[in-house]
């Protein structure tokens, strides 16, 4: 159990490290731009201060995420700038003292220290080191004794954005790899014959058997041994990739619910909190109902667990009051009470509460009830905002996000990018292979975007085969690079339908968000860039405003 | 300081950087087993003091609006929580700065970057030293 916990910590650390790296790269690129502005157009005390703060932050955080050398270098640069931070503006001579070629080169060098993988060894060793391995993409363990089959399945899945660790027998899989895996694919005969050697710990990744066993008894045997899924041969790789993706999604949602507990009895509050936290829930506790509204908007829970009577406040009345606010109309509430009067419960429910649990209630029952309700609440919230095929944001919501990000990046003077993506010749795919295959291709691109882009990027399905992406706090160059990688990977994914193998490419248009008056105009510009790319021969990325050399008469001018 | 000998459970962390808050949550909750409350500003920390009633407060130094030292001064002025030990966590560790923080009433300064795997041990050490 202790091992499990430290593996879990290591995995979370690895994710945080990834996030740190992405943010650091963006921060460094804006630092460079800001310094070169100071260099060319003279001193601006605001820009020097923000450069200093940005170096200071890196100096303080890089080491924690395993980039010690980066932290030390940032510290030295920070110390060089420091004396100039409080200097009066207009003293250009002073600035040239530090802002010389060598300083700029060192600042540029910082980016290399981040993007170079950064897996410099940290003195702390083992656990941390282990956790800080890069896990940019979900890792899948493949157990297949036949080398040719293993190789071809591994390479096909790699194109879908998975990292594959291949083994020939169940016992060859090291435990630390197993706990890190998002899923395990096993040759069915190994699993039914030798039995499951992994155990049935619920924290293990889902196990999917691949093979040709058929018949009721054989499949029953696999299920009995603990298999979570079965995939018949020949393997339809895009379908398998989508299946793994869904299993990963389900696991991520399991038990990660956010619960706000309101109870005026401090001991009960503490107790409920402990039970739910132990069950892996994210809990926020409030003792006084008057703090409820503030806690709601800050914590954004999936569910509120509330005592039915707190001092002179009644839970059901509070529930009704919460729903005055349009934001909380759909909020799920569970009432807890020793009150077992039916009439009272009906009354409570009619006032908008959702579930009524009668105390005393066992810990495990409470946890189960909250978990089920949380998952349900999440699914409902997701259904309302997500596209049912891809799980991405729906048209209107992603457009809304563009608008929000537009005002945000205008306010903070940051670079953000809008991208419009469109699958090439998609109609042909639908016509020739049918909508089922077409849907699979759409899901394929959706999953690829989820893997390749940052957690902070907002991805939406804009239309049939069109996608809209917002990349906050990201330079145009970084966006181009990330999306070129998406194009590159998309065109390698092999689809098979009606016995025919085919590939689908994607065209992408980009526009810098802050250069436009509003979000709509930026989307329009990205769309224009997309059409430029289509006319350039598809399969690639175009930026709005880049001169279109390919076709005459379609030169687009950037407004910035 | 009778509270100092009892077991340390509730720690409040005031830190504006989301990444550091996240890594500190891991370090102090998952690794250290503490009950951690994170606040992204000094103002929020002051608002939540009474409700959370921390036994120990960790403060970042450089934060927008209200920096760590001002937050600590404001905490000292609350009266009720003036005696809660505070530790600064900062990348600035010039000796004169350390002295400044200690003179504000901080009990220790933990230099950043910190190692997430050993942070809670470090904090426990400091806590036990307060007894």
From TrEMBL, chain A:
Chain ranges passing through the membrane: none
Residues carrying Phosphohistidine: 56
Cofactor(s) needed: Mg(2+)
Residues annotated as domain Response regulatory: 258-374
GGDEF domain span: 414-546
Occurrences of domain HPt (ranges): 9-113
InterPro entries given in the database record: CheY-like_superfamily, Diguanylate_Cyclase, GGDEF_dom, HPT_dom_sf, Nucleotide_cyclase, Rev_trsase/Diguanyl_cyclase, Sig_transdc_His_kin_Hpt_dom, Sig_transdc_resp-reg_receiver
Name used for this protein in its record: diguanylate cyclase
Organism: Marinobacter nitratireducens
TrEMBL record, chain B:
Residues bearing PTM 4-aspartylphosphate: 60
Pfam families linked: Response_reg
GO biological process, one term: phosphorelay signal transduction system
Domain Response regulatory: 10-127
Keyword match Phosphoprotein: yes
Keyword Phosphoprotein listed: yes
Alphabetically ordered keywords of this record: Phosphoprotein
InterPro entries (alphabetical): Bact_response_regulator (IPR050595), CheY-like_superfamily (IPR011006), Sig_transdc_resp-reg_receiver (IPR001789)
Classification via SMART domains: REC (SM00448)
Highest taxon of source: Bacteria
Record-given protein name: Two-component response regulator
